[in-house]
Give the backbone structure.
Amino acid sequence: MRPFIFRLSFLLSLAIFPVVIKAQEKMISPAKINSIKLIDLGGKESRVNLSKAVVFIFLSPECPLCKNYLPGLIKLQNANKSINFYGIIPGTSYSLKEINELKNEYGINFSLLTDREKRLSKYLGATTTPEVFLINKMGAITYSGLIDNWATSLGQKRLVITEKYLEQAIKDQLNGKQTFKKTIPVGCLINDI
């Protein structure tokens, strides 16, 4: 009986080990995130609250796709108060006034922060607006990429959304499912300005 139990536990450890490696490949450092200088809409340095799950949404005030997604993102945030949502505006192209105008026009109720030096963008590997990252409270990136499959390429959209990637990833996380998924974002490229 002992050899059987030993073999069984060995086989189970082999089955579990790749999941652990995959999770470690997608870990972020809360200390690194907190060392990155982000500016709030009042012009003050701000920190991200990583005590619970976080959604980072990389946005551009002039990107039409970002603007189209804002009402749905606000609704998603309202339905998931146990998760901190942060809109991140990378670079120096937009003034705080322009970002505040976007916030007021769309009624954005989650924090908007500027990543002027694009350190957070580079650390997470963000390349596009809109692009989202869902990070659990352990620091694992459980989802990154598209919000859903509405935009198929620049200027091309589906008539019907069939995959709600971010919403499903949030549901999986809240239900205790350990999933890791990445999609390729579609939108405006984050430039060097």
User: Anything to note?
Assistant: Residues 2-25 form the longest helix (24 residues). The CA atoms of residues 136 and 173 lie 8 Å apart. The chain is about 40% helix and 20% strand. Helices lie at 2-25, 30-35, 64-79, 96-106, 119-124, 165-174.
